[in-house]
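A common beginner's mistake is to predict each chain separately and then try to dock the pieces by hand. The better habit, illustrated here, is to supply every component at once so that their relative placement is modeled jointly.
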Amino acid sequence: MKRNPKSAWQNEVELEIPFHDLDPLNICWHGHYVRYFEIARSALLRTFDYDYLEMRDSGYAWPVVDLQIRYIRPLHFRQRIVIQTYLMEWENRLIFEYIVRDAESKERLTRGRTTQVAVDIETGEMCLISPPVLKEKLGVK
Amino acid sequence: MKRNPKSAWQNEVELEIPFHDLDPLNICWHGHYVRYFEIARSALLRTFDYDYLEMRDSGYAWPVVDLQIRYIRPLHFRQRIVIQTYLMEWENRLIFEYIVRDAESKERLTRGRTTQVAVDIETGEMCLISPPVLKEKLGVK
Amino acid sequence: MKRNPKSAWQNEVELEIPFHDLDPLNICWHGHYVRYFEIARSALLRTFDYDYLEMRDSGYAWPVVDLQIRYIRPLHFRQRIVIQTYLMEWENRLIFEYIVRDAESKERLTRGRTTQVAVDIETGEMCLISPPVLKEKLGVK
Amino acid sequence: MKRNPKSAWQNEVELEIPFHDLDPLNICWHGHYVRYFEIARSALLRTFDYDYLEMRDSGYAWPVVDLQIRYIRPLHFRQRIVIQTYLMEWENRLIFEYIVRDAESKERLTRGRTTQVAVDIETGEMCLISPPVLKEKLGVK
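With all components supplied together, the output reads:
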């Protein structure tokens, strides 16, 4: 996990656009990007041992409460893309930002952002502040 | 629920093919039919009060262990289809058969078949005979 | 198509959450909403005869360039929802807003917004102003 | 591409089960396997330069006309799987068989089979014999 000015927690995953994600215009249907972002986020969460399974074991669910995607250029069949994911905020909620680039040209193709909040699985209550377990996982005070 | 020679338990649901189910050839991608069959099966299971929620409450999961689809004619955007679903076997496992027809012409477009077996949720063991709760739901002895 | 203060072009569609849209937390996975919005938008576009097929025949594709979803409450299995769709802007681009409500209680569950721009299919160029065909379809001057 | 008794044309791809493919029972929903098979088949088709794009350029579409899946054991979150794909028949149609194994234990988890037939894109007619281009691609006489 590299550290850079944008965020101390970031990651890169590489994916390829499969046939079943294409629409009749021969480009990736815009709804599939949500899956790509989740794969990228899941990989980043795993670097600090707090992916879905660890979230659940810690007693918290982290539902996505906000999603934003800005489509800059279309994605095509077999295109290899790199998703750069940045953890932008964690004190009260988890905010991730995503940049999708062509794996070869590095051209920026899409930008995205997701927001998640902690929900106590037992009580069903939303947490206004991220639970201590997140700080521990991130190794911050 | 009509009774006919093919099966005492059968049902019909009508669906429409949405844009996001199309592939670059402008026809419905073959994998989406699995969703259509599930919607149809879910509707039939509900007629005897044994859909997913009641399965779970009865202590059994019913995973699909076999799937077969025969594609006869392609499905197109906005096409309205009717799925006729038949419960073909229930004593040891649940076998459903599906016929997809054009809602207007009634032409047969697809045939399918799914097999499910009961798994005891507590022990994780597969049941070789369908559990009594299914008989009760079906009202058979 | 009813006229109201929010938009002259609006529509309502009713959907039900199927099993295959649920995630391990027993709620609808957040990415599936993009499909629901498309079904709703497609229905509204059809009221003025400018759905995907008519777009294509008019020589324009209308890719989604921006997507925003605000998840307020989760959706559950078998829950019936109503999606209210409003055409908010059309002069330079198509902006739709969506409100997802529980079909019974009318409680607001989700808000969404999509932006599409016209692309000339022949030249591949993005239009800075919506092409005349859209005005004709909408019956505005 | 290894040669073995089962088929001269075979391949292996490795995949990981993502969160959004799980259902409420915490296992991979049975319909997603169709995507996995397509990714595996696409990789094998590429080894002899006849994936979707080359099919289209050769004037033929190859719709799937039959699908069979036998689910042996469930797939879980983050599980790494290997899909072994075998081209079993090509003279009159393309038949692929798939074996899904756990990437580590090599345990067999799923078996599948798809059948595709050539359709002349211009005339829309189904070919009873595979077109010569397939033989050329496979390097057989």
